[in-house]
């Protein structure tokens, strides 16, 4: 499958890994939008929030647990951070392998910024 994040999981495309479990991978965004910008993804290819099935939500819980762990590891748990899932065209999703952005390390701007 022609998915850039699946290739990162396979190791075919290099990434700066932060944390990994059996089912989840965390790595640095190649174009950081904040001093801390990690991407948290399930190793299973799910295209977007629209494509998550009933049986995927335990896995997505593991993704959230990895996000919590990552915030601690990157030192932004106390200062605060933002977790974002972009879904579909209006959400600004570019990579269709479900992922959460973890942004922090500075005071973030308003949430309703236009592209
Ligand atoms: P989206 O807009 O789909 O929510 O976010 C996709 C994110 O993936 C973007 O922030 C982009 O910088 C990041 N990204 C795209 N290609 C790569 C890559 O090859 N490596 C890494 N580490 N991040 C990528
Ligand atoms: Zn994928």
Describe the 3D structure.
There is one protein chain. This protein is α+β, with helices and mostly antiparallel strands. The protein has a five-stranded antiparallel beta sheet, covered by helices on one side. Strand 2 (24-28) and strand 3 form a beta hairpin. It is built from three helices and five strands, in the order H-E-E-E-H-E-H-E. It is 24% helix and 22% strand. Zinc ion binds at residues 3, 5-6, 45, 97.
Instruction: Count every beta strand, where a strand is a DSSP E run of 2 or more residues.
Output: 5
Distinct bound molecules: guanosine-5'-monophosphate, zinc ion
The overall pLDDT average reads: 97
Order of helices and strands: HEEEHEHE
**Number of domain units:** 1
- Report the biggest beta sheet as strand number plus sense, adding barrel if it closes: 5 strands, antiparallel
CATH architecture: 2-Layer Sandwich
Low-pLDDT regions: none
The proportion of residues in beta strands is 15-25%
Secondary structure tally, helices: 3
Radius of gyration: 14 Å
Structural class, judged by helices and strands? Answer: alpha+beta
Assigned CATH class: Alpha Beta
User: Main sheet: which strands, in order across?
Assistant: 1-2-3-5-4
Oligomer: single chain
Please give the share of residues in helix: 10-25%
Pfam families: HIT
InterPro entries: Histidine_triad_CS, Histidine_triad_HIT, HIT-like, HIT-like_sf
Domain HIT: 4-113
Keywords: Hydrolase
List the helices and strands and how they pair.
Layout: H1 4-10, E1 17-20, E2 24-28, E3 36-42, H2 57-73, E4 81-84, H3 88-91, E5 100-104
Bound molecules: guanosine-5'-monophosphate and zinc ion.
Zinc ion is lined by residues 3, 5-6, 45, 97.
């Amino acid at each position: 499958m022609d998915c850039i994040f699946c290739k990162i999981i396979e190791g075919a495309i290099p990434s700066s890994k932060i944390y990994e479990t059996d089912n989840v991978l965390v790595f640095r965004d190649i174009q950081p939008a904040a001093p801390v910008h990690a991407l948290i993804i399930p190793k299973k290819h799910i295209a977007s929030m629209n494509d998550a099935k009933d049986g995927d939500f335990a896995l997505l819980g593991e993704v959230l647990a990895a996000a919590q762990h990552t915030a601690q590891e990157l030192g932004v748990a106390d200062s605060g951070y933002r977790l974002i899932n972009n879904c579909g065209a209006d959400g600004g999703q570019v990579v269709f392998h479900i992922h959460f952005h973890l942004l922090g390390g500075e005071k973030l701007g308003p949430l309703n910024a236009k592209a």
